[in-house]
Amino acid sequence: MSVLKTSMRNFLAHKGRMALSAVAVLLSVAFVCGTLVFTDTMNTTFDKLFAATASDVTVSPRSATDDGAPSATGKPEALPAALVERIAKVPGVRGAEGAVGSTSVTVVNAKNENMGSTTGAPTIAGNWTDNDLKAMEITSGRAPRGPTEMMVDADTADKHHLAIGDELRTIAVTGDFTAKITGIATFKVTNPGAAVVYFDTATAQKQLLGATGQFTQINVTAANGVSDARLKQDVAAALGSGPYKLQTAQEAKDAGRDSVGSFLDVMKYAMLGFAGIAFLVGIFLIINTFSMLVAQRTREIGLMRAIGSSRKQVNRSVLVEALLLGVFGSVLGVGAGIGIAVVLMKLMGAIGMDLSTDDLTVRWTTPVVGLALGVVVTIVAAYVPARRAGKISPMAALRDAGTPADGRAGAVRATIGLLLTALGTAALFGAANSSQASAGSALLGLGVVLTLIGFVVIGPLLAGVVVRAISAVVLRMFGPVGRMAERNALRNPRRTGATGAALMIGLALVACLSVVGASMVASATDELDRSVGADFIVSSNAQQPIVPQAADAVRKAPGLAHVTNYTSLDVRLTTPDGKSVNDRIAVTDPTYQQDVRRKTVAGDLAAAYGKGAMSVGDTYAKEHGVKVGDLVSVDFKGGSTAKLKVAAITSDDTNIDKGAMYVAVTTVAQYVPAEKMPKNTNMFAKAEDGKAQEAYAALKKSLAAYPQYTVRDQTDFKKDLKDQVGQLLNIVYGLLALAIIVAVLGVVNTLALSVVERTREIGLMRAIGLSRRQLRRMIRLESVVIALFGALLGLGLGMGWGATAHKLLALEGMGVLEIPWPTIGTVFVASAFVGLFAALIPAFRAGRMNVLNAIATD
């Protein structure tokens, strides 16, 4: 109990200092808990949606996907309507009804504005069925009854200000058709963002499937007392071994969860990774806090030892303080984490993905994980200062000798740090010279970890050199005040190294990702300039195929020398030696050779567009021993098998169409029925000589009625690529800001404790003439030097990581190294302002000290 009382007294005596460390724990725990609550809430939302929309047993075509992705042909796989009556007669079936559903549609208003989601959620069109009543209810108007009527979901109506009587145009592969809104249906569960429209059954079949008498799935309801599993078994027995897929409600729910689970997992673990970085930075803050508090209580610890306290008791006293800090910060962090999750849900709602707080999910594991992480990290971080406190001998402490200064320990630390840095550098060198991306990636990860730890360990050694160099450039102009700031920063290299290391981690990642992002953009731009001959590229914004009417509009645009069709098809390839592999083959027109210039290592690419011919990439050719003239068996999905002659082998030393195999549209048409032929995923066009601007304007005008497609020239393509990489980096920078905020708190805490530690010294300097303004400037300059020290190490380390990562990207065709000097320079200068900001409160408090009381301080 005496240890607890002592720890409580010390904790409360330094509550201001502890508060800053507690904030670091709070932020880290809050981010972890917020991530867990947010992703659990998203899982709950989708689980409720899938559970509400699933029938007892669902029958669908075997080839249908569970993720709802748009069909390559524009028409979903379908079943004959006769199966509905057949299934209805199965014992144990209470009811069976056919349903039509398609995500290969776009719905627009009179202004050609897309009514779909802006977050990537699909637009779903189908017929209104009894099964839909489980998840939705008609809250206004009525269900559609004819070919000119439709119903929309309430969320879409609210977002786009739609009302009954408004006319919308639906763009499908079978053609465009218009209908007036006769009803609005509201979800009983949360709709994450999909736009849903309904038609009567006959219209849905005709316009979405191209023929009546077909359904995309059959919803089967079990009779009372019949389990879903038994119903599935009975229906399967009645249908026999046809091309059907049967799922119970639970299986359909699980399949739906799996379809979105990978996306949610990536988001979850990425955010947890950034929370881990914040925890790592927080460790330095906590170590510094307890190290300085132990140093300030040296005499007190000596008295405790003199009156009988053992090393273990002193050690335990410091660790109990850390436990109190960890519990306090973690409890607040758990609460803040729930708030962060709510904020994230609101942000997602602002960009079109709806999440309701009614579904807010806080599992019991979330606070347990948050508390455990916060407490364990805090105690681990405080262990070294606690152990150091226990080593203080009573006589040394009473002589005010301070904590033991072990020169041998410093030498060992420097040796270990240099060894780790050397090993890390060797790993990075190995990664840069690796011939395989997989092996190089492992070496890169090892090199990053070792060099990071190495720089942290040798931080005190580097501080003596780097701080002097920075001071020579930055502080000399401030005269004596600058020199005093330099000496203060160098007074305790271990403390300066730890404080700078906290900032170094975040900025190293910023620099690394900046180099990688800039190199990716520069490489892609260079590849576009070298390889792309097309003037214009038409692509879909929603991964939908280009519908025939839009493709015709492209072909009819004036001023075009040629238009190229481009799609891809799943195939199974069998080489002459009998080895088979599943792959995809690019199906294009011969003019694609002009649109994308591919280097040929053997044969003639033009010949690959001839009858019965194809090309392969050199990687495939090497792996399977394929040569020009060999016959490859190509089993086309949805079609028959062809024997195609390899007429060309193209180089895979590229970033565009790497590994692509080409075959002519006319060749594939001989083996794949028209209804099974995938529609264009992209289209390429070349302007007539001297008519690039006119053709660009005409092409945009011709596609104005189809907002789901975008026309880009090469300038647009480069800009979009740069914007996409920039947006991704901005998100990453935003997440890294958490670690940088914790690092700033560390600088504030270090300076604040340093000011207290130097109270008497400050009083003496004030007594001999140092003004308050000069004192504040000295502390601010010390903070700036520490921040620039961390920034210089971080940026240098990060650029080294980024340059190594670029070498691996070069193996994938991204061969241009680009160092974003404006970004690096901005971050370095911003670090100085971070230092100034961090010093505001400590400098203000130092300036307010009473000179006589400061001198009298023991």
From TrEMBL:
The keyword Cell division appears for this protein: no
Domain MacB-like periplasmic core, chain residue ranges per copy: 19-237, 499-697
Entry-linked InterPro entries: ABC3_permease_C, MacB_PCD, Macrolide_Exporter_MacB
Keywords: Cell membrane, Membrane, Transmembrane, Transmembrane helix
ABC3 transporter permease C-terminal domain mapped to chain residues: 274-394, 735-850
Pfam families per UniProt: FtsX (PF02687), MacB_PCD (PF12704)
Membrane-spanning residues: 269-295, 318-344, 364-386, 407-430, 442-475, 496-522, 731-756, 781-803, 823-844
Membrane-topology annotation of the record: Multi-pass membrane protein
GO MF annotation list: transmembrane transporter activity
Major subcellular site: membrane
Statement: the UniProt record of this protein carries the keyword Transmembrane helix: yes
Entry's Gene Ontology cellular component terms: plasma membrane
Localisation per UniProt entry: Cell membrane
Recorded family membership: Belongs to the ABC-4 integral membrane protein family.
Name of the protein described by the UniProt record: ABC transporter permease YtrF
